[in-house]
Design brief:
It is built from 3 helices and 4 strands; from the N terminus they run αββαββα. The protein has a single domain, classed as Gyrase A, domain 2 (2-Layer Sandwich). A hairpin with a 7-residue loop joins β1 and β2. It is extended and about 65 Å long. The chain is of the alpha+beta class. α2 crosses α3. The longest helix is centred in the C-terminal third of the chain and has 39 residues. It has a 4-stranded antiparallel beta sheet, with helices on one face.
Amino acid sequence: MPASVHSQDQDQSMMDATAAAPQEQEQQVEQEDVLEEKRIIVLPGATETAASFQFEGEGHTLGNALRYAIMKNPQVEFCGYTIPHPSETKMNLRIQTYDTTNAVEALEKGLDSLMDLCDVVTDKFTASRDAFNASEADKMSS
């Protein structure tokens, strides 16, 4: 075997590996924060009451659901989305509001509304699944 395989300089203890792990985790969290910040971009030409946003890594699933949630806001005059090109994972969302609110607030309210809707769906699904599992367990024990 080559001498480098048995070299004492090449050995590292587990203590060294675990000491480096928290630093690596902190760097990974910082990188994730940077990535999350760049997922929504305000496109040029925005005003207080009208703006276009570009969502990275999103498509029709979020686009249509978010458009629906934003349009339920009576302060929103128009909301529409488009996928600029099928081979890119980008979604553009256009929001126009009346003078009583601005486009960024409408987007935030729409995202909050969509998250609340998803929470309700999750709760109802979980309750139905648990009820089904309980009824199946009763059938098997009978």
